């Protein structure tokens, strides 16, 4: 086999591979010899079929099989011999001329093909022991724990049927139908909806107008959607709601005690507080982790400058771009609404894609040198978490990961990355800094620029928008 490099431009490589006809013939004869004892042909005893006859009958199909095996197997061995790693699967090109293809299959011509690919760039890792980062830590105050415990208790509060007018804090059961310009709008209707007046679950001005109503009352109330409402077609518009009050219930006494804890399956109020504190600390810990990780990535970005394979950057950019456009569409927004243009956004997200690919290569090399491994058990846990997100579709999700090339790798990559970050934290100089929760939750400009548009929220009710995590890099 002869391998000739025909292109070496930056990270791009192209090779011409020639397998001489004599080598193809030798491999064909080996295949025929292996098959000789297994094939049954009329007129010949088993194992006595001449090779020349087998070649005449099966030679062309076996040669086609050989060609297919070579283009599947040879690229990997060629790359290994050259000491190169391809960024993506090499593109294989063969002759499209029917006459030349027939000559190859009949064993009368050399088999030639080309390999086009980009190499993973060679680069030296920076000494990460010189990195200095700050870990922001929040000491959860007892007051915040108590506030959260009160919310838990509020959700478990009992309500007793009430006669008379609804007041702030009462739970009302209503049917409602929302209209804009006299026409019902999607998401603006419900039946037997339960709402605690003063909970601020609905759009501003809605709940206040329920005060003073009695069971059986009907009323048309008018509200105005906020100018920045997530559903663009409703933002800033006046709407009416046809309300029918079906029941009113007054809140029972709110007490935080062992009895409340036991209704939640816990031993005591102290245990409830302990769990709530742990949950709050875990939530803050996730934010701390993301900000810590960003500092590491920023320093890796500053200390590693090299060209990234264009195909990897293209793929990453297309993934980001699809997400951005989908979220803009979902929210009825345009690039102009975000104070930018499509051209400027493309440029910004292209830079982000290049950064992600480059940092991905750096993290991969750090992890490999540290011998970071992802166990089958870790992959199984990750797969289980994915399956849980699609109740009722468990079988389809399992089949997807079994049959889709690269699907399991998509589970492995974030686990490998987080374990690599954990390894780096044992080497990097980390200083703890006590901060308030407001300081911890504050997004700096660089962090915000690495996030997609805000997620869509339900149109009729206000729901806290879940903060997007920094995208995996």
UniProtKB/TrEMBL annotation:
The keyword Isomerase applies. One of its GO terms (molecular function) is peptidyl-prolyl cis-trans isomerase activity. The keyword Membrane does not apply. Keywords: Cell cycle, Cell division, Chaperone, Cytoplasm, Isomerase, Rotamase. The gene is tig. PANTHER family: TRIGGER FACTOR CHAPERONE AND PEPTIDYL-PROLYL CIS/TRANS ISOMERASE, TRIGGER FACTOR-LIKE PROTEIN TIG, CHLOROPLASTIC. It holds the Pfam family FKBP_C. This is Trigger factor. Its main location: cytoplasm. Gene3D superfamilies: 3.10.50.40, Trigger factor ribosome-binding domain, Trigger factor, C-terminal domain.
């Amino acid at each position: 086999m002869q391998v000739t490099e025909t292109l070496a431009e930056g990270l791009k490589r192209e090779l011409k591979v020639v397998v001489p006809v004599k080598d193809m013939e030798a491999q064909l004869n080996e295949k025929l010899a292996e098959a000789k004892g297994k094939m049954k042909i009329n007129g010949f005893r088993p194992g006595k079929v001449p090779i020349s006859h087998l070649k005449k009958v099966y030679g062309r199909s076996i040669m086609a099989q050989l060609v297919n095996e070579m283009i599947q197997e040879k690229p990997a061995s060629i790359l290994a011999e050259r000491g190169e790693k391809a960024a993506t699967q090499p593109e294989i090109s063969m002759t499209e001329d029917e006459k030349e293809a027939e000559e190859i299959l009949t064993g009368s011509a050399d088999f030639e093909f080309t390999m086009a690919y980009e190499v993973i760039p060679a680069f030296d890792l920076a000494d990460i022991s010189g990195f200095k980062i700050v870990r922001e830590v929040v000491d959860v105050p007892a007051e915040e724990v108590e506030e959260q415990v009160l919310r838990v208790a509020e959700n478990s509060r009992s309500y007793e049927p009430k006669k008379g007018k609804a007041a702030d804090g009462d739970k009302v059961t209503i049917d409602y139908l929302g209209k804009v310009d006299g026409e019902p709008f999607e998401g603006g209707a419900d039946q037997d909806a339960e709402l605690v007046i003063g909970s601020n679950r609905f759009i501003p001005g809605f709940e206040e107008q329920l005060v003073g109503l009695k069971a059986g009352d009907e009323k048309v109330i008018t509200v105005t959607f906020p100018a920045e409402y997530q559903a663009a077609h409703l933002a800033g518009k006046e709407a009416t709601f046809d309300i029918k009050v079906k029941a009113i219930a007054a809140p029972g006494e709110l007490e935080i005690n062992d009895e409340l804890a036991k209704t939640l399956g816990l031993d005591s109020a102290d245990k409830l507080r302990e769990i709530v504190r742990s949950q709050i600390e875990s939530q803050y810990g996730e934010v701390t982790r993301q900000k810590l990780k960003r500092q590491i990535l920023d320093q890796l970005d500053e200390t590693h400058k090299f060209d990234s394979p264009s195909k990897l950057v293209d793929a990453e950019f297309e993934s980001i771009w699809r997400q951005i456009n989908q979220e803009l569409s979902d929210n009825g927004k345009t690039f102009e609404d975000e104070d930018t243009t499509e051209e400027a956004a493309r440029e910004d997200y292209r830079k982000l894609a290049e950064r992600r690919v480059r940092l991905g290569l750096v993290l991969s090399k750090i992890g490999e040198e540290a011998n970071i491994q992802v166990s089958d058990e870790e992959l199984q846990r990750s797969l289980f978490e994915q399956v849980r997100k699609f109740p009722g579709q468990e079988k389809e999700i399992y089949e997807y990961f079994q049959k889709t090339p690269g699907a399991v790798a998509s589970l492995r990559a974030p686990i490998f990355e987080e374990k690599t970050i954990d390894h780096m934290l044992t080497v990097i100089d980390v200083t703890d800094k006590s901060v308030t929760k407001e300081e911890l939750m504050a997004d700096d400009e660089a962090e915000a620029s690495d996030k997609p548009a805000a997620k869509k929220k339900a149109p009729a009710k206000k729901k806290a928008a879940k903060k997007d995590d920094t995208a995996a890099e």
